[in-house]
Amino acid sequence: MVYKNYISGRWGSALSEETFVKRNPANKEERIGEFPLSGTRDVNLACQAAKEALPKWRALPMPTRGEIMKQFGDLLTEHKEELARIETREMGKVLNETRGDVQEGIDTAYYAFGEARRFFGHTVPSELPDKLCLTFRRPIGVAGLITPWNFPVAIPCWKLVPALLSGNTVVFKPSREAPHSSTRIVELLTEAGVPGGVVNLVHGAGTTVGEAILSHPDIGVVSFTGSVETGRRIAEACGKTLKRVSLELGGKNGQIVLSDANLDLALEGVLWGAFGTTGQRCTATSRLILEEKIYDEFLTMLIARAEKVKIGNGLNEDMEMGPLISEKQLEKVKKYVEIGKSEGAKLACGGEVYTEGECAKGYFFKPTIFAEVKPDMRIAREEIFGPVLSVIRVRDVDEAIRAINDSSYGLSSSIYTRDINKALKARQRIEAGITYINGPTIGAECNLPFGGVKNTGNGHREGGWTVYEIFTEIQTVYIDYSGKLQKAQIDTEQ
């Protein structure tokens, strides 16, 4: 099937008529569809459409925009299974996970419906009599949204919904690895009542479409989720024109398990955190930090369970782990396995491409565990984005915290312990934007801030109430009803 861009309320091909083909990572012989390979001229048209649509859209009362977001949530609910299957076919993760991905989009839309009636500013006392001081939040204008493939419904919704509710119009570039999900999202937004020109979908490569979004003078804010390298490039480009920019980047997340922890619970957590989405989450558990008293016991438990993970096409309800997204990512994971071996880490299980049965047609890799990993090894420091877990031995909780903080990233973290004092003291010392106590490093909820420190981003937070700070400007208003000139901060006779 041939899919289109959506610009100014109309579906159409790229001006160049060029296309790219998206294939199923579980079966590279299966074509998902043919999509526009757009260029700068297409982005220019999308920006013009968004600019023209902006005055009417931002003039709508926010509760009216909220009603549209509720209708969008209703449509996501109605089409949840369809969207989950679209996701699984185009990016591979199992149906239980893609259903959860769509649910996150539903939750985000319904949260926005409520937020539309509590879009609070501040009223504060004035230092002068008969004077009011207030703040309002206003849309920035045209928002450029650049999204990844690993959560092809949730992450676009995390950006689209708050951008639109805030009164912005949008130019949206999804990943080339998840174009079908994004197309369906835009179809449902229009069905929900978003007018033509308010959302504009432009498929294509980051080097063309992405760069054109960054440099376009009519775009006032850019929101990006992806790699650190690309994030640095975006920050540099947006800095030249002083665009607002929000970056949600990588992670090298650690789970600490202390000797007093519920080991069965911690085992379930690390399996889900390390091998859910085939390790292709920015919050995936990449490092397991074990107190030495339980190191051997827990590692034995973990290997036994990891070797039983059911690998296959995510459309099969019996499967627990699907493929990697592409041959390029498969080769990257294979490379890091060799790096781990060369560094002296012990390959405890996995480390191989999985080719049984129909999996030979896809990009499958066995759950992989390295033992005896040192914190300075590359496999413990660099983001792999695959089902590879590095296990680190520590003497006590202090060494565990030093190990988890010994990273250039700081997105998600986890600690398992029955000692509430240790847990809360660790929370204070762990350098991460998210910390789970007795839970895995994955599992963010839509009504709380999401983001990290260090190389994980530039300080903004998606999710919850904080995402609206990305897409709005604050207007401060003074109302003087004294009937005379009052000079703030000027000493006067009383």
TrEMBL record:
UniProt KW Cell inner membrane keyword: no
Keyword terms: Oxidoreductase
Any Pfam family hit: Aldedh
Aldehyde dehydrogenase domain boundaries: 16-477
InterPro entries: Ald_DH/histidinol_DH, Ald_DH_C, Ald_DH_CS_CYS, Ald_DH_N, Aldehyde_DH_dom
Gene Ontology molecular functions: oxidoreductase activity, acting on the aldehyde or oxo group of donors, NAD or NADP as acceptor
Membership in a protein family: Belongs to the aldehyde dehydrogenase family.
Protein name, as recorded: Aldehyde dehydrogenase
Gene source species: candidate division WOR-3 bacterium JGI_Cruoil_03_44_89
